[in-house]
Amino acid sequence: SLAVLQALEDGLKKADADPSVKAVMICGENGKFSAGADIRGFSSPKRHGVALGPLVSLIESSEKPVVAAIEGVALGGGLEVALGCHYRVAHAKARMGLPEVTIGLLPGAEGTQRLPRLIGVPAALDMITTGKHIPATEALKLGLVDEIVEENTIEAAIRLANKV
Q1: What is the pLDDT of residues 103-151, one digit of tens each?
Q2: Bridge-partner residues for 73, per DSSP?
Q3: How many domains does the chain divide into?
Q4: What single DSSP character describes residue 30?
Q5: CA–CA distances in Å: residue 125 to residues 34, 40, 120, 129, 152
Q6: Where is the signal peptide (predicted)?
Q7: Active site members
């Protein structure tokens, strides 16, 4: 939602401006990272506020390390947010994907550029063109996530952020 995008932008800008903040961790709520954009908003009149693509670029360009704590699912725009992060920690039961193609859309927040850079063109093309969701174990093998944990993903992401 626009409110989530605005909160992410505000939080990141505040963290970047605060010299006492050494790293940023982005997580979802209620055991899910993000299932992506609400497609009902795609047909709305022109929206005002931050858009997903520029937000992901803002995350990526942060001078401070940004770590995604992926629980549940990171799909569509949610995965694109995670792709903008410098590091990704996933719960062992997490699933990731870009399912937009199943409703006739291509990923719109530069996921088609970031995913191939991270996991290579063949694996990225498979994910982008089929819309399949991959489990955390496969994501680790592909290099999509840096670490898989069985315990609290948020605590693991904070540990990684403190380490880097």
Answers
A1: 888 888 889 999 999 999 999 999 999 999 999 999 999 999 999 999 9
A2: 95
A3: 1
A4: T
A5: 22, 26, 9, 6, 31
A6: none
A7: 80, 100
